[in-house]
Structure formats: structure tokens, C-alpha cells
Amino acid sequence: MRRFLLAFAGLAVVLLALPIVGLLQRTPWSSLPDLLGDDVTLDALRVSLVVSLVAALVVLVLGTPLAWALGRTDLPGRRIVRALVVLPMVLPPVVGGAALLFALGRRGLIGQWLDRWFGLTLPFTLTGAIVAATFVALPFYVIAVEGALRTARREIDDLEGVASTLGAPPLTVLRRITLPRLLPAMGAGLALAWARALGEFGATITFAGNLPGRTQTLPLATFLALQSEPERALALSLVMLAVALAVLLPLRDRWLPGR
Amino acid sequence: MSALSLAGMTRMGDLRLDVDLVVEPDETVAVLGPNGAGKTSLLRLLAGLLSLDSGALAIGGATVDEPGTGAFLPPHLRRVGWVPQDRLLFPHLTVAGNVGFGPGVDADRVAGLLDALGLTGLAYRRPDECSGGQAQRVALARALATDPVVLLLDEPSAALDVESRHLINGVLTAAEAPATLLVTHDPVEAATLADRLIVLENGAVSQAGSPREVRSRPKTRYVASLAGLNLLEATASGTVAVTALGTRVVLAEPAEGPVHLVVPPTAVALHRSAPDGSPRNVWQAGVTDLQPAFERIRVVLDGPLPVVAEVTPAAVEELGLRVGSEVWAAVKATEVACHAI
Fold first, then answer.
1. Are B58 and B2 in contact (CB under 8 A)?
2. Contact at CB, A165 and B44, closer than 8 angstroms
3. A38, A178, A220, B118: which has the fewest C-beta neighbours closer than 10 Å?
4. Which residues 209-228 of A are in CB contact (within 8 Å) with B?
5. What is the value of pTM for the model shown?
6. Strand order in the sheet with B337-340
7. pLDDT: which is higher, A49 or B279
8. Does this complex have an ipTM over 0.95?
């Protein structure tokens, strides 16, 4: 039985490792510096970093209060909102992008008013790419922080209570007790959300298009290069792998479960 | 001016907490009660983490909670020091960081308290590196650091090591210690730390007084069982009292009306056959349990007077006592203390 399980576990490891090995094996190491240094790659990297970092910031600003409302209040309708939060995780990203287009496009439900009143156009812009990335990334953060809030609700309540009897006003309690207590969950959730935003493809290409230097992110550039310039696709993939590892390694000890 | 004075009522779920209590400066009062009596809720109410439904609460002479006038002072303005049962040290701060958490607590104050509670060497440890006794001392130092008007202790010496108990008792009995209200289910803790006892049962005060008074004149079955005494409710008429089970008990002194009969377990003598002699209360009983208690055995009896007898192990052997045995029990009239209710 044990041997049987180990065999399947080994198969899973192979499945996870094989693509990485394939990627490294096919990488054109000699022409790599040129490929990484040219405008297409650097533009895509820049767009990707801007989109994913701004999306992460929006996730932090909007997601934290949402996680608080879901995890620490007894507001009615929490179940429905919770289901809504998970939706972008299970929805195919292309559908998400199409939905964004119908809602926020120039003739969309809200988009027409944004256009008329503010002259704001989201589709096929950098802002649109950020909206798409935020849409798909938000659930990862909200679920992580809400989960931490709910499982530790009692403990957090108690710690806040003690802090207040020691003379700390509510804002001090939030700053010195509640936020530090939630920091690990917020960090883990934000890392996951950011990684999801960085890898976002379907919603972005549907809603924001594939305009080099404006909305073409690393995944989009990779996909495009795969059809004409496989070597460039490999180089771009390598960049994303490096970025992913750069995030994963420092987080491994503090934030990922199973330590 | 009292350190704390409460006369009020609040509801939490099924529990209705309705308590009158006063703690004077320099006084230590223990609230003794079984689990679920509302002890912890009482402390949360005093700290401002719960609020009154009616009545009033004053701390240091200032009204902090009075629903009638809408007055309510939040916890951070109340000057109470709360030491919760599970300590609740801030996990992300060091021992010194915990003790110095309160706004305005300076480094000298922290150092002085760490020293007084034997924590100086632990100043830079994290709470999860402290033993239970050390954590309790840190929680106490943290509460004292803010110079509270009244200190609220929840089961302060539950499962403490000897050193911690000694240090904590030293700080609590020091001259500069604030007024203290402690809640506990442990009668020994209550009696050793407190000047006065308040017994809380089902959210209400069932008895109050000095530890000696409470022990010698228990008014409820709970208090009697804590003191190790047998308590029987009865109605007296002259030198005879009739219990709720209809059993007649002979008294040494005449009494009238509803009374509590208090019988020390050591006064219950056990015999294999009916004893003869002086005016005694004699009855036949079955043994339902045998419990070791230090060098004695507590024999739990059923029958017309369900009481506990305390005898030596030699007597248990001699009488051949085991669960289910039938024995004769006897109590002298002079051993039955009778208190009017």
C-alpha cells in the first residue's frame, strides 16, 4: 500500500518538475542576454510589473476591508458576498474578461457612463489590464485574510480587549495588535494574489488586448512569441520563472504552510 | 471612595448576571464560584468589554457604566488591570514589550516590575518561549504597569509552579498593590489571597463574608461541598429538625423555622451494627463511593441523611467498607451546627 502511494506521489513530482526541466533544457543560453535585453522583453516586463504591483496594491486596499467585513462582522448577505468573492477563482479567466468588457466596455453597463462623465476608457488600456488582474487576484487575498480572521476571531477579540484595558485607544489597538497578528496571513494572501496577477492571461487579453508596451504583459508576449520566435518565448518564460522563484523562496519559511 | 462599586444586571445568552459588590482600596476580594457562574463575564463587565443592562458601575469613584443616563466609558479610559485566565500575552511582542505596552509606561516601570516578578532574565523572550507560570507573571506585570485603580485577576494561580505562586503572592500583598478583585473556582486560592469572599452561583451572589465566616456557615450546597462540610436544609422546631427527606435530626440547642444543618464529615461515625448510648442521630446507610482525601477516606453515604463521612483507612478496613456496603452512621447532637436561614 505504502509503495503504491509513493509511486503515485513520485509521478506527481515528475509531472510538476518535468516542464521546468524541459524549459531549462531548451533555453538558448547563448542568445539569452540579447533576448532579455531587447525592447519587447523589457516592455513586457515593465507592463507586467506595473500591472501586477498596482493590482496587488488595489487588492490590499479593497480586499482588507472586505475580509474584515466577511470575517469579523455579522452583516446580512455575507454568504452571498463570500460566494461572489470565490467566483473569479472558478470562472474561466476569458469569461471574466468578457464579463468585464460587457460591464466596463465603452458601451457596457457602467462603461458608457465612465466614458461620458469622466472620459475614462478601460478596455485596451493599461488601467484595463490592472482592472482585469485585480479581478482575478482579489479572491486569493480575501480568502486568506478572511480565513485567518475567522479562525482567530476569538483570540483577536481577546487580545484587542486586553490591549484596550491597558489604555490603548482603538486605532492603537488596530495598529499594534490586530494588524501585526494578521500580517502573516496578509503577506501570504498578497503574495498569492500578486502571483496570480502576474500570470494573468485570459481576462487581460480579452479585456485589455495585447498592445506591446501598453497592455502586453509577459504571459501575453510569451504566447505571441511561441508562434513566431520560440527562443524568445523560452527567454520570457525564464524571466517569469525567475520572478516566481524570487517571490517563493523568501516566503517559504514565513508564510507557506507546513513548516 | 471605593475602588470599585457595582450594583447592576446584564444578560449574556442564558446567563443573567446580577451582582452587588464593592471593593475598597487596599482590599482583595475573591469571587468564588463554579464553572459557568458568570465569573469571567463579571470581569469583562468591569473592564468595559461588556456593558450593563441596568444599574451602575463606578471605578475609583467615577461612574463608568450607567445605562440609565447613557454613561459608558470604554475600556481604554477605565484604569483597570485585567489578567485574563489564558494570559493572552501579545504573541508578536517580547516579554518587555508586553509589560511596556500601555501608553505612558516607561522603561523604569517595566524594569521594576520585571525585577519584582523575577522576569528580568526573560525580558527579550517571546511569549511562546515562556512557561505557564512565567506567562502569568508577565500578564500580571503588564496589568500593573499601567497603575490601575483596580486589578482584575481571572483564576490567577491555576496550575502555577511554586516559584511563580510565591512571586505573585508577594506582589499582590505588597503595600503598593492596587485594590484587587480575583475570580476563582478554587477555595484555597480564594481563602489564601482574599480578605473577603463573594460566592457567585448562576450569576447571583449567594454568600459573602470573610473566608472563615463562609467556611463555617455555608449557605449553599456548593459552598458546603467546597469547605468539605455536609449541608442539609431542614425545618427546626425545638431541638428537632426535619430535613427535606423527612428525616428527624436531634439538635443540641433549640431552634425554630427553616435552618441549615452543617455537619463536619469527621463527626459522622460509622458502625457495623446499631450503636447504643447517648442522644445521637443514628441511621442506616449504603456506601455509594469511597474517595481518598490525604490520610483519610471520604465515605459517601445515601439513606435518610445523605452525607459524607471521613474516616481513617484502618476504619474502612475494619468495617469492611466498599461501595454497596450497608453501615450504621451516627452523629452527636452537639456536632450538628444549626443556622437559621
1. yes
2. no
3. A38
4. none
5. 0.74
6. B230-243, B248-263, B337-340
7. A49
8. no
